[in-house]
Structures are given as C-alpha cells and as structure tokens.
C-alpha cells in the first residue's frame, strides 16, 4: 500500500457484538486500492466481504484501525461530515440497482447532485447516461428498462459526482450472463479509459476476472491476492481451496 492509494485500510478490525457473542468480521486488514485500478474482493460466505466494503466506503465505522478515502482519514469526521464525503467522493452500485421507481433514468442519475445540494446540471446528467450507453433512455422509468439497463442507470448515478471510488456489491448478481458481461465491461472501461477506481465484491470468478486484482478474504483477514488480471479458472481454483479450508 502507498499513501497515494485512493482507499487505504490500516489494521482495520470490525467486531460485532460483545463477550461470548463477539464476532470479528474483520481482523486487522491492511490493504490499499490504487487510483485507476479495478479490484475484486472474494471469499467464502461470512469471510467479511460486505463488512470490508462497508468500512472502506464509510458506511460503517471500524472497531479499530484507520480508513482513508481520497486523502481523508474517516476517523476524524463527524457523522454529518462522513455523509457529505460519501455523497461527494464515493459512488455505490448494488445488486438490486436501488433506483427510485417513480423517477425517470435522468432524475435517478440527478439524485446524488440534488442530495449534495447542487442544482443538477442537465449536461452532466446526460453525459453520465451517455457514458453507459443510455442517452436515448433518459425519460424512461426503471420499470420500462431491462435489468441490465437499470444497472447501467445505477452506474451512471454512481458516476455523476465524479467520485474518487466506486464500490460495487455483487453488481451482476441479479443479471443473466450476457447482461452481466456488458455491465462488467462497462465497469472495466471506466477504469481503463477514465482512470476510475472500482472495488467490487463478488462470488463469481468470471466477474472477478474483469478486475486487475483479486483480494481473497477468509475469517476476516486478507489471505491471498492475485494480480495482473488473473483468469476465471485461476480465481475459481483459489476460491475452491479457501472454501475447502472454511468447511
Ligand atoms: N450486524 C451484524 N451483527 C453480528 N454479526 C454480523 C453482522 N454483520 C456481519 N456479521 C458477521 O460477520 C461475519 C462477516 O460477515 P459479512 O457479511 O461481512 O461476510 P460476507 O463475506 O459478506 O458474507 P456473504 O458472502 O455470505 O455475504 C459473519 O460471521 C457475519 O455473521
């Protein structure tokens, strides 16, 4: 890890509950995510992937350790300041798209700008939709769009504030194979062509193969990482060995 990494985790632990019931969901994780890189986070069920994503994105506070996003130590921020930082510097993409059904694609993409108290700039909103190939669908509501198109609207919404980092939680979990590939190519393209930083939690080795780097968690710790754009077979083999160990 270097101090220029967009997201930095320094000895991050997250304990849920206390006493006999205490669960160390994250146990002293130190890792960094360099600007303009695409990282997949994998690991068996319960290994701490969601907890890592929530702590790294400032949605949850670590019990111990430090998280830095875009040069800011999140531990120094009040809840309100943290909310403002998330709105301005972090984009989110979820498995279930999380679009507002009553709003058009364009209005959904404009939401983060409205929440940040900015008057949505129609040109920026249109540009974000064009980026994901949906300029023609600006006036459509989510129910009038396919799952893949809805996820692309969600990606445009994540992009519109020009965040330092986009966190994606199983972004293709609800999509078929062909649509998933299109969404993953889009995410990878944002990294390759615009220098976006993307961190994606996934169970799917094929999805993880779109990343530059794959981080493997087990029992709340980083136990391995593959770099240099590993293929799906290599990733699946590493996952299989972790799942055997976890049984
Ligand atoms: N709010 C909570 N209260 C208590 N324990 C929790 C809470 N959230 C997570 N945990 C526990 O922390 C550990 C890590 O959970 P986490 O959801 O981060 O794993 P995961 O790798 O994302 O799992 P999955 O792949 O099944 O979604 C698990 O043992 C889980 O039961």
From the N-terminal CA to the C-terminal CA, the straight-line distance is: 31 Å
CATH-scheme architecture = 3-Layer(aba) Sandwich
Number of helices: 8
Helix-strand category: alpha/beta
Spatial strand order of the main sheet: 6-7-8-3-9-10
Name the poorly predicted regions: none
Residue share in helices? 25-40%
Mean pLDDT level: 94
The CATH class label is Alpha Beta
Shape: globular
CATH topology heading: Rossmann fold
Write structural notes for this entry.
- Keywords: ATP-binding, Nucleotide-binding, Transport.
- This is Putative ABC transport system ATP-binding protein.
- Residues 7-244 form the ABC transporter domain.
- The protein has 247 residues and is α/β, with parallel strands linked by helices.
- The protein has one domain (7-246): Rossmann fold (3-Layer(aba) Sandwich).
- Helix content is 36%, strand content 24%.
- It has helices at 49-56, 79-89, 105-115, 122-131, 147-159, 177-194, 205-208, 232-246; strands at residues 7-16, 23-33, 38-42, 64-69, 72-73, 90-94, 165-169, 198-201, 213-218, 221-226.
- The strands form two sheets. Strands 6-7-8-3-9-10 form a six-stranded mixed β-sheet, with helices on both faces. A four-stranded antiparallel β-sheet has the order 2-1-4-5, covered by helices on one side.
- Strand 1 and strand 2 (23-33) form a beta hairpin.
- The two termini are 31 Å apart.
- Bound molecules: adenosine-5'-triphosphate (ATP).
- Adenosine-5'-triphosphate binds next to strand 2 and helix 1.
């Amino acid at each position: 890890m270097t101090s220029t990494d967009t997201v930095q985790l320094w000895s991050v632990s997250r304990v849920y509950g206390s006493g006999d019931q205490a669960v160390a969901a994250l146990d002293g994780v130190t890792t960094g995510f360099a600007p303009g890189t695409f990282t997949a986070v994998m690991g068996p069920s319960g290994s701490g992937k969601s907890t890592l994503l929530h702590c790294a994105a400032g949605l949850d506070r670590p019990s111990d350790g430090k998280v830095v996003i875009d040069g800011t130590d999140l531990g120094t921020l009040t809840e309100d300041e943290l909310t403002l930082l998330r709105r301005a510097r972090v984009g989110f993409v979820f498995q279930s798209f999380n679009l507002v059904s009553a709003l058009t694609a364009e209005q959904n993409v404009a939401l983060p700008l409205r929440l940040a108290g900015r008057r949505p700039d129609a040109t920026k909103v249109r540009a974000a939709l064009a980026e994901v190939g949906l300029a023609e669908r600006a006036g459509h509501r989510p129910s009038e769009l396919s799952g893949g198109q809805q996820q692309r609207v969600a990606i445009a919404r994540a992009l519109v504030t020009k965040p330092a980092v986009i966190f994606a939680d199983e972004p293709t979990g609800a999509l078929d194979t062909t649509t998933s590939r299109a969404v993953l190519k889009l995410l990878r393209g944002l990294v390759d062509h615009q220098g976006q930083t993307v961190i994606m939690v996934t169970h799917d080795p094929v999805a993880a193969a779109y990343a530059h780097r794959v981080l493997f968690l087990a029992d709340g710790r980083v136990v391995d990482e593959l770099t240099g754009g590993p293929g799906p077979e290599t990733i699946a083999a590493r996952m299989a060995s972790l799942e055997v160990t976890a049984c």
